[in-house]
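tool_call predict_complex ligand=iron/sulfur cluster
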Amino acid sequence: MQLDCSVLGKDIEITDTSIPVISPYWRLKRNGDWTLLCRYEHEQINYSMLSPLMGATLSLMDGRMTFRHLCLIVQYAHDLESLEKAMEFVTKVIMAANKESDAIVDMKPELEPYIKKMDPLEFVTTTSKWKQQKRPTAPISLNLMFSNECETNCAYCYAHRRYVPESQLLPTKRWKEILWEAKALGMEQVTLSGGDPLFRKDALTLIAELINQEMLFLLSTKCYITEEIAERLVEIGMTKPINQYVREIQLSMDGPDENTADKLAGSPGYYTRAVQSIRNLLERGFNLRVKAVVTPLNSQHIYHWIQQLAGMGVTQISVAAYNRTYHRHNDNLFLNQKDRISIAEQCERARAEFPAIDLRMTGLEKMPAVTTSAIMNPTGTERPGDDKEPDKDLNDKIRRWNERAQCSGGRSSMTITPDGKVVLCDTVPQDETFFVGDVTNKSILEVWNSESLLNFAYPPREKFKGSACYDCKDLEECQSKAGYCFRDSYFNYGTVFGPPPKCPMAQNDGMRME
Ligand SMILES: C[S@@+](CC[C@H](N)C(=O)[O-])C[C@H]1O[C@@H](n2cnc3c(N)ncnc32)[C@H](O)[C@@H]1O
Ligand code: SF4
Ligand code: SF4
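tool_result ok
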């Protein structure tokens, strides 16, 4: 259910009678001496760190006090000279919190059931202490790989899928303990990756435990959902709401016929199984999204695929462009310019004909970024937009680098693989270079704060000797805030200790990614 939230200072003005409240789509959390404002949603972890003053002020916004009332309390608590000064201060706090988010909204009765009550005392901390803390003292989320195996063998799959013998899989009991610890550490959302989360024999027991622990997650699968499995998923609560959400099941089917869907899934009969899975889920009222990874093999069938899904009653559909995989990449799976134009046209047509469908496009809305080497040496694989000017392109690269997404690995999350080995990203090879711990007999917290993990996520400057990072004034900020993609550095240049191709300081633009 989508809640209607009016963002203060953006959608509506802040007045004396506004009732500021932290939106149900955000959480204020204590993490060590930090206060964090975290997005609460199925997939992404997005958070910002707040000063103690800001954190303590926001913690009062639980939807019970008007702006004026709140300012009176703040005036008293901070010993401010006038109510006007307090109003100025609280306005600044709201505007700062909403600058890059939509976290502080105006209270409405409909929001009441979804508002989290907070204890403001929990957010009081001394100024000096929080500055000493360099990173979250506990992860904000986890990426869980219950299995590295699948029923399919998708042509485009980015996952390493290291074989783990059954005898070495983390036992059910240990997975449950990990989930309990995650809950006790204040986590409310996890991501599931793999392999296929439903492949394990006890997968439904683990999913049931996640539901018992009130975790929000998205279940992406290509396993066959028989009637029996669909029934079990209903029984364990997959169709029940968790706060304002119903957990989503994402099922992939990459085309409207056997020829395309079976080929891309690398599994004869996949199309027939996927159609039946979709029916079994829809009949039972699941929150279902059907997804396709688009490659030149299915790019001409997207409209028919959407038309077919619409006919079956599917209302949420995603199409995502193929991205390079480091484990089984095939250049022929990259979309070319004509494919992209065709996909855009087919999606536009589908949007016009099926307006009730929520159609998401990922990596397809615009042409992918052009890199300087593509222009200066336009020989390799075709790259769209080769006619741009080099200077403009370099400026674009710098701008994109400055706006890059935060890397969550070791900063807010870590990935637990099926035998308990911990890595920082689900696309890296699962081998000794990338293992940073093991939860078989260590707690989440022990691994999170271990020397091995810290050395990997925040390597000392000496490790970068010989690379542009060694002399870079941004190294500390690059590591502590945004992060840099160590996976891309490794695959392009053979080392994790250097700038990735997206950094303007990288030795060259590296391989084509999308
Ligand atoms: C690695 S899978 C793991 C979950 C599950 N096995 C599944 O396929 O849904 C997660 C998602 O990534 C998508 N995916 C895998 N490889 C991809 C690639 N090279 N480019 C874009 N999406 C990819 C899959 O289609 C799936 O939706
Ligand atoms: S995309 Fe998912 S189902 Fe397909 S091989 Fe990869 S992990 Fe398995
Ligand atoms: S990745 Fe780029 S910005 Fe970051 S430290 Fe290295 S050279 Fe500097």
